Fold these 3 entries.
Entry 1:
Amino acid sequence: MRRLLLALPFALLPLAVAHAHDDHDHDHAHGTLGAHEHGVAKLNVVLDGNTLELELDSPAMNLVGFEHAASSDADKAKVAAVRQQLEQPLKLFGLASAAGCKEDQQELESPLFGDAAKADDDGDEHEKGHVHSDINAHYQLNCATPGKLAQIDLAPLYKAFPATQKINVQLIGPNGQKGVETSPAKAVVAF
């Protein structure tokens, strides 16, 4: 399932380097491109023929409101509710219905879902032993008429997870590749 997205980081490396100078109060001063930033998520989008792949990588804080292992009933319920939302990509990503996209496969990973603990890429701990938790969602969709996909609307994703303030999108489609920074007010990305 990851065949298309494997090439994405290399194809878009020049874009990532160009945006690496972005500053944010929660910067970890490591200078890494994959820094864990609350309020900020990453989305990779690849449209290749009839296959549309979406890979969302977000700090758990953006989606569930915390990053620690869920121990209370309220926390467990919140994690279960977020997982249920993430299991419905066609409700989170606005795609033209004329494109006829149907979900083929999905993969959800996070320490909060009981997966092996995955800390930041640099493995750094922050704020007295607090290890950052991310949630990764990977979807593969099959689109009957991919030519009808002119854009992807992230407004439903922003609405579902209001703590997400910015999504950095890297996209490869029929018109080439691009990197776009989206926000709740500017949530549509053209292919």
Entry 2:
Amino acid sequence: MKTYEQMLKEASKSVSDIGKKERRLEIPSSKSLIQGNRTYITNFIEITNSIRRDPKHLAKYLFRELAKPGHTDGNRLILQGKVMNSLIRKKVDDYIKEFVYCKECNRPDTRLEKEGRIIFLKCEACGAKQVMRRI
């Protein structure tokens, strides 16, 4: 006859990790490189692909929030001036909170839709539709 501890060990092995909450949206951390008076975000396209947003939209947001002009060049974003990577990460996180996650169900299954001059955040999970601010 098995002891209580043996049965408990067997049961814990057969049960999946219930307490572990898995994030559905895995966003790569921004990788930046400062050369001279320019800052290069080397994995910019990876970030935009993971959040399913237009690179132009995120770039425009970063230009405005960081108060730095710039442009895209292949897979990277080039900012005029020196910007710390921690500040870039914070601004990307702010963008994701505002323009990616649904305000109703808090899921990342959204897309931006433009109707006329108004941009809506449409949730594919719950169907909510919210007006977004212009950048």
Entry 3:
Amino acid sequence: MSKKLLCVNSSMRVEASRSRALTSSVVTHLAQRHTDLSVIQRDLSEGIEFIDSKWIEANFTAPDARSPEHQQILSYSDVLFNELQEADFLVVGAPIYNFGVPAALKAWIDMVVRAKEAFTYTDNGPTGLLKGKRAYVVVTSGGTKAGSDVDYAWPYLKHILSFVGITDVVLIDSDLAGIDAATGNANALKKIEQLT
């Protein structure tokens, strides 16, 4: 059975983007190991909708009670969610902007982390419904050390992925480019080469 990979790039820099170069390397690496791999590219620099009050109303209306307008409002979110749900592998490019994730990536998360579809509440607390996937998160930065006390990108992404059931998450970091870009990039490429 063929495998599916969803690659989400959130850098607003299209040319000379380190996160895009590294997500491309991850995808190439995985494609070499899974010859039947099909890849979906989701480029958030091309624009993404933000949730609003109408979206919230539609999303929290029971599916069998949604009006045609509700369905239309959720149609874009449905596309994004289905891409994630059907993927075996998820690759996320997340440059650190002002110590956190880009606004477009947060908007994508808001579109796909839907109650009763991505997660559900039980007597024992929330349970993720998107189990059985592996995620590769590429974090790049100019001056923020990945995993440090001021990195609010990687811990958040790791948490939100776990929240929806994706607990097999690999960090590929190329941080502190403003100090030593070559070393950070070399370390990231070494991690990619060692992926199984």
